[in-house]
Amino acid sequence: MRWMWRVHKLFWNLSGGRLGKQIGDMRVLELVTTGHKTGEERSVLLYHLESPDGALVAGSNLGSDSDPAWVKNLRAEPRAIVRSEGHETEVQARFLEGDERKGAFRRFKDVYEDYQRYEDATNRQIPVVLLQPIDSH
């Protein structure tokens, strides 16, 4: 699966994000975070769902027992950049909790059944993050 994302990112980068913006029923965005150890820019392509307040992303890490690096980066520095549809937006990450998180994660499982498999494979609670655009006015 990881090699597929590497190839996907290559096409994404070569096309300026025009190719690979959707896989099946899932839309894709590029999340640019600040590395929590290095302070350097880190970029990852993620499935996302739209919400009225921004994009929702889930840190499934394919069911691994550890959070993906981008989650660790957002916990350390919640400001990030989202690139999608040829646009770049500065965002503030908010980790969802309780019923809000459960409802959002249910949406992921409804759209892409592998999220249930990821949840079953791990002992950790998969984080769901709302990437809220920061008003630049």
Walk me through the structure.
With 137 residues, this protein is α+β, with helices and mostly antiparallel strands. It has one domain: Pnp Oxidase, Chain A (Roll). The protein has helices spanning 2-14, 69-76, 98-111, 114-121; strands at residues 22-23, 26-34, 41-51, 54-58, 79-84, 87-95, 128-133. Strand 2 and strand 3 (41-51) form a beta hairpin. The N and C termini lie far apart (40 Å).
User: What is the fold named in CATH at topology level?
Assistant: Pnp Oxidase, Chain A
Helix content: 25-40%
Query: How many strand units?
Result: 7
How many H/I helices?
A: 4
What coarse outline follows from CA principal-axis ratios?
globular
**Cα Rg:** 14 Å
Specify the CATH homologous superfamily: Electron Transport, Fmn-binding Protein, Chain A
How many domains? Answer: 1
Order of helices and strands: HEEEEHEEHHE
| Uncertain runs | none
